[in-house]
Amino acid sequence: MITADKTVLELVDLYPETELVFEHYTRMVGVCICCEALFCRLSEISDRYEIDLDELLARLNSVT
Length: 64
Known about the structure:
Number of helices: 5
Shape: globular
Number of domains: 1
Number of strands: 0
Structural class: mainly alpha
Strand content: under 5%
């Protein structure tokens, strides 16, 4: 199960399919999350880009 303490890099490395989820949010916030926040934890991304953390986790867990 993916949790808020995981980084984007960890997830894309372990679960390449999560990149599609990050692409969805990239379109929403107008910033490439995989480029700008690769080393950030999901909780940090949620705060920085005002993304609902529960929704982000649900989407990521649904593709793994």
